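User: Here's a structure from my thesis project, written as structure tokens. My advisor, Dr. K., wants to see whether a designed sequence matches the one we expressed. Can you design one independently, without my sequence as a hint?
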């Protein structure tokens, strides 16, 4: 298969976007994990017994974040 610079550039761009999204997700989860139980309830989330954050209303299915 013959890769051109366009294909390689597109692959690198996709990789950079995924990396940026993963870093942003970790940053947001870190900020959310520091919130109190009351603040979590105010934004529609709750903390499970093991400390994980559950989406109760935003995600609609109780799925962990």
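Assistant: Designed independently from the structure alone:
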């Amino acid at each position: 298969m013959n890769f051109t610079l366009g294909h390689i550039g597109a692959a690198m761009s996709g990789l950079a976007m995924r990396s940026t999204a993963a870093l942003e997700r970790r940053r947001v989860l870190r900020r959310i994990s520091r919130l109190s139980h009351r603040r979590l309830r105010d934004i529609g989330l709750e903390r499970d017994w093991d400390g994980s954050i559950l989406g109760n209303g935003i995600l609609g299915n109780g799925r962990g974040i």
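When you compare it with your expressed construct, this may help: The chain has a mean pLDDT of 78.
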